[in-house]
Structure formats: C-alpha cells, structure tokens
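<amino_acid_chain>
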Amino acid sequence: MLMQTHEARLDALRQELKRRELDGFVIPISDEHMSEYVGAYAQRLHWLTGFGGSAGSAVVLQDAAAIFVDGRYTVQVRDQVDGKLFEYRSVPKDTIGGWIAAHAAQGARIGYDPWLHSRGWVQTVSKAAARIGAELVPVTGNPIDAVWQDQPEPSPAAAMVQTDEFAGRSSADKRAEIADWLKAEGHDAAVISALDSVAWLLNIRGSDVDHTPVALSYVIAHADGTAELFIAPEKVTPELTKHLGNAVTVRERSAFPAALSAMKGKKVTVDPNYGVAAIAQALEAGGATVSFERDPTILPRAIKNPVEQQGHRDAQARDGAAVSRFLRWIEETAPSGEIDELAAAAKLKQCREALGNLKDLSFDTISAAGSHAALPHYKVDEDSNIPIPPSSIYLVDSGGQYPAGTTDITRTVWVGPGEPSAEMKDRFTRVLKGHIQIDRAVFPQGTTGGQLDAFARQFLWEAGVDYAHGTGHGVGSFLSVHEGPQRIAKPSGGQAGTEQELFAGMILSNEPGYYKQGHFGIRIENLVLVEPREIKGAEGNFLGFECLTFVPIDRTLVDKSLLTEAEIAWWNSYHAKVFAILGPQLEGDDLAWLERHCAPL
C-alpha cells in the first residue's frame, strides 16, 4: 500500500534511518548535477514534505524536523508543508549546520547523500555539527529512495544532436579549446558534471529535465581533446553515435564512479559549485590529485557566437508574436472576471505552441493576478489559482525553449475597466525608467554586472522603495533560462556572478520590479545582448546592450510626466522596432491591436 500522508512518509524515513543506525538525514532539492530544475525522480523533498518550490532543504531527526527556504517561499512553505511535522526555518538567517548543532544529540550520526551536495556544503555543515561532537555521514543509496515506493525512474528519453546550424561551432572545436586550457593549467582532465555544460560541450540536447533541454550524463574531458560521455545506453541513438565520432567514448552512466576511482596519478579539476561531493571523494580515494576550479565550459558557453546570437534574435521575434497575441486576448477577455491564472497560462502556452517549433516552456509561467503579482516567484497551481480581478494589475513572466534560442519575458498589464491608481502608475514608471537605464547603458570593458545594478534601482530608491531580487541573469542558447556566470545584482551579500566581467556576446535579462505586499507587483523584463560600442574619441573599449525582446509595454500604467524627453524617445523608438519586427507576423485584429500599442507615446 502506498503511503499517502506526509506523516506516514516521515515515519517511514525515520524507520529506515534507524535501520541504518543514523540519527538524522538531510534532504535537498538537488540532483547528481546540482541542477536548478530536477527530474521527477529527484523531487525527494516534495515527496517527503509537499513543498513545491524550486529551492529548499529539510533535516529530519528522530524527534524533530525542519524545512529551510529563502524569502521567496515564506508564504508558500506554510501553505504546503504541515507545521506540526516540520518547523519552518528561513535562509540565510537560519542554517542547516546551526540547526543540527542546536537540535541533534551529542555524538549524533547525520546522514547525507554525497551525490546531492557540494563539497563546500559538506565541509561547512560538518564543521557546525562537530561543535556537538556530531558526525556527517555519507550514505550509499539514498534512504528516501528506499521508502518512496512509486518513485519515478529517471527519464529514458533519447539524447538529441544540436546541429551546427544552431550551435554555430563544432564539438571538436569546443573540446580543443578546453584541452588547451587544461594543458595551460597543468591538468590531465576535467570532470564536467553540470548538464548544460555537457550539452554545450558535445552539442547534444535532451528532454530529461522539465524546461531545460538536457540529457542526464557526465563528461570527463581530457587534455588531448578526447572525452568520455557517461550516459544510459537507451539514450544513445545511431545519429548520436555518428555525431560524437571517434574522439568521444560512450560509456554507461553507471560506470562513472568507477571511472573516477581509476584515475590514479592524474591531475583532475572539478567545479566546486557543480561537482557533487561524491565526485571528489571517488577521485581522491582512487589516488587522483584534485583541484577545484570553475568548469572551463562556463565562460565560453556564456559568450554566444554569431550563429547563437542570430538564433536568439529569430527565436525572440517569433516568441514576441505569440506573446502579443496573448496580451491582446488578455486585454479583451480578462475584464469579464471569468479568466483565472491557470487559464491565462494555458492560453499563453497555446499561443507559443501555435508557432510550431516550441520544444518546452523555459520555466513554469508566473501567471500572477492581484496580490499574487507581489510575490516575485509565484507559482500558480490548483490550490492557489484565482480569477484575474477586473480593475487590477496582472503580471506574466514566461518563456519558451526553441532550437534557435531560449526566451524569457515579463509584462505587467492593467486589466480594465477603469484606470490604475496614481501609486501604481508612479511605481510602474519608476520601474520603466530603471529598465531604460539598463537598456541604454554604455560602460567600459571590465565592468561587472554588480556595477550596473544601481542604474535600474535609482528611481525607486528616490521614492524610498526597492526590490529584493537581482536585476538580470544570464540566459542559455536552447539551454538553461538561468545561466551563469554573469549577473546584474547588488554586489553585496556574496551574490554569485556579480563580480563577473561582462563580455560582448553575453545575454542577460533586464528585469527591475516593484512589489507592494498584499496589493500588486510590477516587473518589466527584456533580454539584452552585450555588444561592442564604437564611440568617437573613446579611450579604451566600451560596451552596451542590444535589445533582443520586442513586445509592447503597457502604456496604461505609464505616468508620462515622470519621463524625460530622452526616455520618451526611447519608448517611441522601441515600439517602432516592435511594430517593424512583429507587424509582418500578425494580421487582422492582432495587427490592429499591435498598431494601437506601438503608436508614439
């Protein structure tokens, strides 16, 4: 009989821990590749607790348990997780190590799955547990898997070739670049464990993880330009074998740990963030010398080649037509009060599917009505779904995965009848002004994302308000919608990526926002491409942004009196481009709607 209640599941886990002579266990949302999104088989935290967010962890002891989430999920965790079973803890204020030290018994043995945590995490939590003489113990076989009776299998879907038509560069060329780096750094090999890094290096894609077109696999890249791909045999097609050629040896995914253990005497580099603790443990136990450096594919992957850049433009242009058709539908139907958040998300997906080349959404659509728009990472489901209220703000953040590129766009619109309040218009216009500042930014080579962040916030700061998320993240080419290493965010607080220099060819989002809790939220998001800027008399090299996203911004929410002449000129120029790009793709009522929304301000 299947365990239906979370109480029964928690009890079964505790019995399994007793059987293994463990006093506790740590459960993250993670997989063997430290992926942002994970396959259904790896949703262990959701199975145990009911929590459906994309980031979080739990610790289970025999007499206590806690779930740890950040500020994005403060409301959601209380809705989904039983407070009688798990106490709620807030990250970063509360830490797993600190909680273990406060609640575990002296000398406790706390289990963790070394295939789901980074080496740094293990070191940090071990140090905290040691304060009470507790020990962090790596497990062989995850205890959740032992009690999760109907756990899905990892996806058996075949891996696909990403042809040079879209990749713009051969796998052999990419492997040669990595080999040159390995030789220069004195390494024999690099373990490439992040799924999007494997996909980029070998020009392969897959459908094993929702919203990210990757195949479950690992690569060991060698300094002679060869590579070993570890992947389940059912995923390997004749087309894939031919594409990989003689320089890439295909081995069973299950052979990966033994291959690491067999690298005695080799100098091997592992990424400290994406390489799980088990990788370094296996290498060191086998006699390899391990160093920890950033995955050498990350920076070249982030700098898009000309073919990838053009692919993004093409994908954005088609995606923009789909989003515009949707916005016209929202404008016409939502004022009735009969459209709910789920129906709106489904309609937007239909609009994208009608393009004919949509492979997946790039993330779960944030379809946020009324006060839900004030939750930046709101995820609608059957329980939270509400009708879009008339006379309110509706925020939709969405994207698509196309063979040519990955899209991500947010539009905030007024749903009639009536007019938005003066406060709504003020806040929307300040967000717009910040968005324009990023779009128009010109900066010297060597500038980081952290140095640009205040450009987007300055007009909100003038009004004594701010937003609690970053301003921009990197985006992949038919890969992850959140791609490093670049990021536009406040440089304080150790924000990953804010110290990364921006290079021509990088793609970032430009998405300032404002959120009035319990009332409304605003965000305007386009994607931009870092490009060289020719400036007469410039002393040194300068960069700027090419806008990639073209969809009308809602003029109903704009207070024109707050805009400068230069900002009004930007608005009119942007919407002229929107009409030029989308107009030829639309007809009839859709075209008439576009024309109205692209008229000069």
Summary: The longest helix spans residues 306-333. The radius of gyration is 25 Å. The chain has 19 helices and 28 strands.
